[in-house]
Amino acid sequence: PYTNIVFKLSKALGFLSLVSYGMKKDAQSCIKGFVLAGFVMCFINFVTYLVFQDIKGGMKHGMMNWKGHLEYQRWYFFSHDNGSVFYYLPVAAAAHYYAAVYRRNFFPVAWLFTIVSLYMYIDLKSMAAIVSFGLYAAMAFLIWLYQRGGKIKRMSAFSYPLMMLTGIIFNIFIIVFLNSDMLLGLLNEVFGKSSSLLERVEIWSRSIDYFAQNPILGVGPAMHDTDIARITYEHTHNILLQVAYQGGLTSLLLLLMGCVFNYRGRVMEMGNPSVAYFTASLVCIFVAGSFDFYYHYVPLFFPLFAYGCVGSSMDLKDGKTERASLESDFRK
């Protein structure tokens, strides 16, 4: 497992270093590059969805999975539907931000991407993807309406602290209350996922038990077979619980500290209100991460670091930048 950890860590650090340098050197080109590259990759994934949507197992049709059974999920270019949403959310947020700040005639493209992606997830009946991406689409629409109407102050509802806190609370709420008959019944009635939801309840219960045995440092990294023996699956299907399970309160505290220190202040958010697209996507990433675990997909960090880099490049005394002036022009 340690070789895998080194590889994923190197990949993440390389990506984030590139984003940090790009945002400081030329934010517009960096965001544009991320959006265009994301569109290409998501288009490839969408094509594989169209080709393999009616085939059990998708691109893994006929292959054996790690449990020794035929693959029952539909896999595409980005993996299965729950996993792919962690790619689609950052791309959608970056596309809307780019349209709002740099090129307003790009909005139709951003909305087309959002609508087509949401249609794909609804057709796939992916609960985590429908809830998280649908939530993002709704919030992005509200942000767009507020900007069009010049109601910038109302966008404080999408402030970074509130969005992060909402995402974390939702994540914990799902862990605590998913086992209730009312919530299970509601989700099963809407999405028809009773078996997978009950499996998650079992996985979370076992994960919490192992966390309780070593709450400071967690159980540490392990081979997939070891995790399967412990919690019945190779991961916990929850971002916060995965951090606590493997790294204990120490890792969880470091994660939360990173989220707190990334905050750039209310002045920045009012000076450049279009960062609301990024902050809205962050709460949606936590919502998706309430049902599955894919924080090793490095593109999902783009909204977090783009928000931080945009804020660090601004004069927080008055919030006036070239991007803020473009926002003012947009409101007119």
Give a brief description.
With 332 residues, this protein is mostly helical. It is built from 13 helices and two strands; from the N terminus they run αββαααααααααααα. A two-stranded antiparallel sheet has the order 1-2.
Beta-strand segment tally: 2
Largest sheet: 2 strands, antiparallel
Mean pLDDT: 79
String of helices and strands: HEEHHHHHHHHHHHH
List the strand order in the largest sheet.
Answer: 1-2
Give the termini separation. 54 Å
The number of distinct helices, counting runs of at least 4 residues, comes to: 13
Q: Which percent bin holds the helix content? A: 55-70%
Query: Which class best fits the helix and strand makeup?
Result: mainly alpha
Q: What is the alpha-carbon Rg in Å?
A: 20 Å
Strand proportion, as a percent range, falls in: under 5%
Question: How would you characterize this protein structure?
Answer:
The protein is mainly alpha-helical and 332 residues long. Helix content is 70%, strand content 1%. It has 13 helices and two strands; from the N terminus they run αββαααααααααααα. A two-stranded antiparallel sheet has the order 1-2. β1 and β2 form a beta hairpin. α5 packs parallel to α11 and α7 packs across α9. It is globular. About 4% of the residues have low confidence.
Describe this protein with a few key phrases.
332 residues; globular; mainly alpha; two-stranded antiparallel sheet; 1% strand; 13 helices
